Every structure is written in C-alpha cells, then in structure tokens.
TrEMBL record:
It comes from Kangiella geojedonensis. It is found in: Cell membrane; Membrane. The chain crosses the membrane at residues 233-253. Keywords: Cell membrane, Membrane, Transmembrane, Transmembrane helix. It is a multi-pass membrane protein. Belongs to the SURF1 family. This is SURF1-like protein. GO terms for cellular component: plasma membrane.
C-alpha cells in the first residue's frame, strides 16, 4: 500500500515541460498515449472519406457516360461484364396483376411513392420488376395513389442490380394490400422480389428503371449513387474537425499557469 502514492505520482509526472509565455505545457503519460493513439485514427478517417469522395466522382463520371449511350437490347446488356446502369430497350408486355408500391419516397422535399410493375420481355424467361417512377402523395390521409394502368409493348430504361438486402427493412417488412395493390413502407429489392415470388413469379435479379418521359404522370429522376461526393466531404470535414478539437483539448488541458513559487525545471 505504501508504494501506490509513488506509482500515482509517477503516472501523473509530466513527460516534458515547455514554457510558453507565462504558462508551461506539461503533458503527462496517460493523456499523451490517448492523444497519440486517437489522433491518427481521426485523420485517417478523414482521408478515407476524401478518397471515397474521389471514388464517387469517378463512378458518377462513368455512369453519366453510360447514360448518354444509346440503349441496347436486354440480351446484349446482360452479356456485358458490368451491366448495372446500362440503358436497355425491351419488347414484351406487362403482367397486370402485379403492382407493388414503396411508400415514404421523397423527391425535392415532397413525400410520395415509387411504383413497381412486372414486365415479361420477349426472349427472356424471367419477368422483370420495373420501376415505373415516383408519384406524389396528394395528402396525409392518402393510403394508396391512383396508379395508371401499365400499358406498353416496348420500354426503355436503365438496369439496376441489387446492392444487397436492407436487413432493417427486410426484418420489419409489413405489406398492406388495397384493391390488389401491395404497399411496403420502404424500398428493399430483396423484399420486393420475395413478394413477387409469393405471387407466383420468379423475377430477374435486377430492376429496369424506366426512362424519363415528359408525357408520363410519373417522375423518373434516379440518383446515380446513393451517397454523393459532397456527403463524403462533409464527413471528412467532421473527422478533421474532431482531430482539431482533440489537439486543442490536449493542449488546453496540459497547459498550466506558472505559479510564482514554481520553476519550469522543477
């Protein structure tokens, strides 16, 4: 027991002393270890977010180039090494008894729905989920939107492959049915595909997002990436700000005023 006070004083003893005006910088061992371990982590996270922002810029550039290419047939698109986001044109017919809707979808601050139909293409065995676009919610009490009949013999759009299941949505999925229209609270591709399977259709592992059409009631504005580069830059700024705050806190907590009876060499 007699050694514990000495050990405590040893841990609290400053590693060095640096006079700064009428103060002295005296970092002790434990705060310094924490500072040295945490600061590189915060800086690395900030740099990683900047790298992610640059990756997203490159991805967006590549996807924009894809969007400017003339649409190709579905069979040609599926032969590509990376078919995701490829523009396609498909002949076929809609399957009228399948209409799925995801609620709580926002566009420019307005709440609405994303409407999905099922499309049977020519020359392709499996039917394909088609995002017909977004419809605004008319008022708070609206249960289901008025969905125009899916009528077409040719559709154009971009392929969208699943980026993985959203476990939160999948585990809490609650479908509601109104006049043969099924509504889900949030979008999750795997959950939509499971519902289509329950309705007797083994759908393809991708979606066709239909091209914008000025004459359509649907709004078709598809984000190229889920998180834009600006979001990663904002995260990077936050990590760098935390690193700066850590440096300032470390300095302030270890900067002591020199007492008249003290010597910086003591």
């Amino acid at each position: 027991m007699s050694d514990s006070p000495k050990k405590q004083r040893l841990w609290q003893r400053p590693l060095f002393q640096l006079p700064i005006g009428n103060r002295v910088f005296r970092p002790s061992l434990i705060p310094t270890i924490g500072f040295v371990l945490l600061l590189p982590v915060l800086l690395r996270l900030g740099v990683w977010q900047l790298d992610r922002a640059e990756e997203k810029r490159g991805l967006i550039s590549a996807l924009e180039q894809k969007s400017e290419v003339e649409p190709i047939s579905l069979s040609q698109a599926l032969e590509l090494e990376t078919a995701d986001m490829t523009r396609v044109i498909s002949k076929g017919e809609p399957i009228q008894d399948v209409t799925l809707i995801t609620d709580n979808q926002t566009r420019e601050g307005h709440l609405g729905y994303e409407v999905f139909g099922l499309w049977q293409p020519e020359g392709y065995e499996k039917p394909i989920l088609v995002s017909r676009g977004w419809l605004p919610r008319k008022d708070f009490y609206e249960k289901v939107p008025e969905v125009p009949l899916f009528q077409a013999n040719t559709i154009e759009g971009s392929l969208y492959f699943s980026k993985g299941a959203n476990s939160v949505v999948a585990n809490n999925a609650v479908w509601q049915e109104y006049d043969n229209v099924w509504i889900l609270g949030q979008f999750d591709f795997e959950t939509l595909a499971e519902k289509v399977m329950q309705m007797g259709y083994d759908s393809a592992p991708f979606i066709i997002r239909m091209q914008p059409d000025t004459e359509s009631e649907f709004v078709r504005q598809w984000p190229l990436v889920a998180s834009p580069p600006e979001k990663h830059i904002a995260y990077a700024i936050q990590w760098f700000a935390m690193a700066f705050a850590l440096v300032m806190l470390f300095i302030i907590l270890n900067l002591k005023r020199v007492q008249h009876h003290e010597s910086t060499n003591s």
